[in-house]
């Protein structure tokens, strides 16, 4: 397993991230985008790469985690615009009525990095979304985060890559933050 060389964070730090990720999910579920943006570092890189299926025999020839397109490829400014649009769905018919979303976070792993007060945090997210009477959809993925900060001072999200399980997003409207 590739993570064997990584240094596990202290139990206190791991617990702090467990609570932080649960709080982050609740903020997004409750449309608290201004508060969520306070967790975001100015140099954020937030991406959801497009996935492709490949035959196993082709795997040894290429790095399939490098792609030429992303579903999301956001910096701080584009995330701010995205959250402003989500916070005020009045002009966006696909968000009126506003969808009900629930995010479930699990499989949390926290690793201390060589740079002080920097942590790699892996987790799994499942988003369940309902908008109309029979409009249920969902998406799941593995998140690879880089956070900066401390238990005492708080943490900021520096980088998030979400590897969704689908090749094609099957949601009618993927106007959600993972």
UniProtKB/TrEMBL annotation:
<dbReference type="InterPro" id="IPR032710">
    <property type="entry name" value="NTF2-like_dom_sf"/>
</dbReference>
<dbReference type="GO" id="GO:0019380">
    <property type="term" value="P:3-phenylpropionate catabolic process"/>
</dbReference>
<dbReference type="GO" id="GO:0051213">
    <property type="term" value="F:dioxygenase activity"/>
</dbReference>
<protein>
    <submittedName>
        <fullName>Ring-hydroxylating dioxygenase small subunit</fullName>
    </submittedName>
</protein>
<comment type="similarity">
    <text>Belongs to the bacterial ring-hydroxylating dioxygenase beta subunit family.</text>
</comment>
<dbReference type="Pfam" id="PF00866">
    <property type="entry name" value="Ring_hydroxyl_B"/>
</dbReference>
<keyword id="KW-0560">Oxidoreductase</keyword>
<keyword id="KW-0223">Dioxygenase</keyword>
<dbReference type="InterPro" id="IPR000391">
    <property type="entry name" value="Rng_hydr_dOase-bsu"/>
</dbReference>
């Amino acid at each position: 397993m590739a993570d064997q060389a990584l240094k596990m964070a202290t139990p206190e730090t791991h617990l702090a991230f467990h609570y932080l990720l649960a709080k982050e999910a609740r903020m997004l579920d409750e449309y608290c985008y201004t508060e969520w943006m306070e967790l975001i570092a100015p140099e954020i890189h937030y991406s959801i790469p497009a996935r492709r299926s490949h035959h196993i025999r082709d795997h040894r020839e290429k790095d399939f985690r490098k792609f030429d397109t992303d579903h999301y490829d956001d910096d701080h400014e584009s995330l701010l615009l995205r959250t402003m649009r989500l916070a005020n769905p009045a002009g966006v018919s696909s968000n009126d009525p506003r969808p009900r979303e629930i995010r479930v976070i699990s499989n949390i792993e926290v690793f201390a990095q060589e740079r002080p007060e920097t942590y790699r945090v892996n987790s799994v997210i499942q988003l369940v979304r309902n908008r109309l009477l029979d409009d249920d959809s969902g998406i799941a993925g593995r998140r690879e985060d880089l956070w900066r900060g401390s238990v005492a001072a708080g943490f900021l999200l520096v980088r998030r890559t979400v590897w969704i399980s689908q090749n094609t997003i099957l949601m009618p409207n993927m106007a959600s933050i993972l």
